[in-house]
Amino acid sequence: MADRDGFIWFDGKLVPWREANTHVLTHTLHYGMGVFEGVRAYETAQGPAIFRLQDHTDRLFRSAHILGMSLPFSKEEINAAHLDVVKANGLKSCYFRPMAFYGSGKLGVAPKKDDVQVIVAAWPWGAYLGEDGLEKGIRVKTSSFTRHHVNITMCKAKANGNYMNSILANNEATADGYDEALLLDVEGYVAEGSGENVFIIRKGKIYTPDLTSALEGITRDTVVTIAKEMGLEVIEKRITRDEVYSADEAFFTGTAAEVTPIRELDRRQIGEGKRGPITTEIQRRYFACVKGEDQNHADWLTLAV
Ligand code: PMP
């Protein structure tokens, strides 16, 4: 990732890609106390458009607030940084990585509170779980790793350190030949994927776990809105793994993963073992929204031209 042409927004300036560096004694590198986002821009008829930018920036600031971290830039400056990197890198569509981290001012568990640095990077990135996954669905394994307890690192902050749990779960699942992991909460109920929220469909109703142990996903919110527009009943409740086994359809949602059908969990085929009809329609509507083809949701887009 480091050896590329282009520019990264770093503490208020566009810095050449290869020079956007930090010291090895950077606090967040040692302890994981940082916050980040994953945002996407899609090519639309009007040019590149960032999907739900304000919602992502709001969550970045909420994550920082949860961790007691204060960001040295305003939300407006962070939003503008996204537009700057699209233009500076001549991107038509991209994935963005905004991140705030403690610099190298001090080591030891307690960071130097006023030593917060912020980046916004952007680069082209295709389907996170593969084009094939979007079409045919993926194979998922229930993880032996439990999702964070609300009083250990909490789940509402998109915090760097939380992703050690995601990496362990994802590595375990992929090493066993699956595409992704499904994590349960401390009580054994379904929480989310390593980087996705999860939905199941049974008898025409759509279910998703409540947010106690899951990230408040922006794609989750988009899909709930779409499902309601389709006239589907959306129910937030505790879900057990055997409910997933017996679902008619299941899918993951995430900015990176978009709407990815799940065709199998723990070697149990879900429904017909392929992308189901309701998932197909939700996915179609999702891509219409992000690509600016749904005028009813034009307010979710920020043009980066
Ligand atoms: N859960 C986790 C753990 C994630 O990392 C993500 C990706 N940000 C999501 C859910 C989905 O969130 P969003 O739809 O906002 O990308």
TrEMBL record:
| Regions that span the bilayer | none
What's a Pfam family in this record?
Answer: Aminotran_4
Q: Which reaction does it catalyse?
A: L-isoleucine + 2-oxoglutarate = (S)-3-methyl-2-oxopentanoate + L-glutamate; L-leucine + 2-oxoglutarate = 4-methyl-2-oxopentanoate + L-glutamate; L-valine + 2-oxoglutarate = 3-methyl-2-oxobutanoate + L-glutamate
Q: Which UniProt keywords apply?
A: Amino-acid biosynthesis, Aminotransferase, Branched-chain amino acid biosynthesis, Pyridoxal phosphate, Transferase
The entry lists its GO molecular-function terms as:
L-isoleucine-2-oxoglutarate transaminase activity; L-leucine-2-oxoglutarate transaminase activity; L-valine-2-oxoglutarate transaminase activity
**Entry GO CC:** cytosol
Q: Please list which residues make up the signal peptide.
A: none
- Name the cofactor(s) required for activity, per the record: pyridoxal 5'-phosphate
A single GO BP term for this record reads: L-leucine biosynthetic process
Entry similarity comment: Belongs to the class-IV pyridoxal-phosphate-dependent aminotransferase family.
Question: What does it do?
Answer: Acts on leucine, isoleucine and valine.
This protein is called Branched-chain-amino-acid aminotransferase
UniProt organism field: Rivihabitans pingtungensis
